[in-house]
Design brief:
alpha/beta; Rossmann fold; six-stranded parallel beta sheet; 16% strand
Length: 399
């Protein structure tokens, strides 16, 4: 029996969190897996009760944020090492930045546990924000090269890790996020008891955290132009810190009757399957699970061509429409649309007006989604067994 610990900040929603949930539910029964969270938050189902090291990461200002981040790494590493010593896993897998540092530091000197870190975000997005950019690069280079294996969820991220952080390319393996196609398509058939989805008006839908990375304000501003030309609605699924800003933008654009925030939904797929177009407005996105899930539901896709995931998923526009990347600037309702927002609006109008084109992109989306099926779980299983087998050979040679 192979023992696997999976460390993640929380299961409170998000692409990496959904991957952790899917792995816990669908990996081979011969792999005994337990999820460990840094914060005791859970929105996704898992195979068994999770463990939590219960760190309070509430941040109030920049100084507190830095100090608490350092505190979290130190205390988190101590607590997680205790779990490593107690459960003695063959493999310890982590998913996000803080989790990865804790995972690596907790296992320094531990020859019996193989360390896997995975990258579900764009590492360079933090560099321009940090006054300690050189230290950030150095820290990432030193620690990540100590891991036994690094999983990159896109080819673009792998190139960035090698180019910008000098990570050993032989340690990096690209594995796309797995999606439970059968489950999603079953959930997509559920009825929607919401008057917003009644009638014949086309519905645009976006799903993702309400954060800077997802760029929903650009979509709302583009929608204001679409709404002037086409009768339609916009639905946004997700929660996050930008909700008040987005709601104010909707009010100031006089779109209150045309835009609905659904918040977090346990089953967003029933809404996606009843929508006309799925629109992704991300500023950056490693490999957006929401995009793959929407394609699984057969929803035609329009996505910004941001780094790196949308282009890889849509194969440079073969399976959906790619539009120009957004600039990520927070605009007011009174600001004129940017050229990129205008282009996005025009592409939405084009697709809304062409029923045959929407049908073709719907068929293409469903076909492409099959490439991300649970069969990707086999790659995780194979990778884990290869690491364990390799470690056993190394110990035998040492003896």
């Amino acid at each position: 029996m192979t023992k696997l610990l999976m460390l993640i900040a929380s299961l409170g929603g998000g692409g990496a969190e959904r991957v952790a949930s899917d792995l816990s539910l669908n990996l081979n029964p011969n792999i005994r897996r337990i999820i460990v969270t840094i914060r005791n938050e859970i929105s996704y189902p898992i195979n068994k009760a999770l463990l939590s090291i219960n760190l309070n990461l509430t941040n109030r200002n920049l100084i507190d944020q830095r100090l608490k981040y350092i505190y979290s790494i130190i205390v988190g590493s101590i607590k997680y090492r205790k779990l490593i010593n107690e459960y003695k896993p063959n493999v310890s897998l982590s998913f996000l930045g803080l989790d990865n540092f804790i995972n690596i530091l907790s296992n320094i000197g531990n020859k019996k546990t193989k360390v896997i870190v995975s990258i579900h975000w764009i590492p360079s997005t933090n560099l321009h924000k940090s006054r300690l950019e050189r230290l950030t690069r150095y820290k990432t280079n030193i620690l990540y090269n100590k891991a036994d294996l690094i999983i990159s969820v896109s080819k673009g991220i792998k190139k960035e890790l090698v180019r910008d952080f000098n990570i050993n390319p032989e340690k990096i393996r690209v594995i796309y996020n797995p999606v439970d196609i059968e489950k999603i398509r079953h959930l997509a058939m559920e009825e929607v008891n919401d008057e917003w989805f009644e009638g014949d008006l086309p519905i645009l839908i976006n799903m993702g955290r309400l954060t800077q990375a997802k760029g929903q304000w650009h979509l709302i501003r583009s929608f204001s132009k679409v709404r002037e030309i086409k009768q339609c609605k916009l639905v946004i699924c997700g929660k996050g810190e930008l909700k008040l800003y987005l709601e104010k933008l909707v009010r100031n654009l006089d779109l209150t009757n045309d835009v609905k925030f659904l918040g977090w939904q346990d089953n967003p797929f029933k809404y996606i399957s009843k929508s006309s177009i799925f629109v992704s407005s991300s500023i950056w996105d490693a490999l957006p699970c929401a995009l793959i899930e929407a394609m699984t539901c057969g929803c035609p896709i329009i996505a910004t061509d941001c780094k790196y995931g949308p282009s890889e998923i849509l194969e440079k526009g073969k399976f959906g429409i790619l539009t120009h990347p957004m600039d990520g600037i927070f605009y007011k309702a009174s600001d004129p649309l940017t050229p990129e927002e205008n282009y996005l609006a025009n592409q939405i109008i084009r697709l809304l007006e062409d029923n045959e084109l929407r049908k073709r992109y719907s068929e293409k989306a469903r076909k492409r989604a099959n490439d991300f099926d649970k069969k990707i779980m086999k790659e995780y299983e194979k990778m884990i067994q290869q690491l364990i087998s390799g470690g056993a050979r190394e110990r035998a040679q040492m003896c």
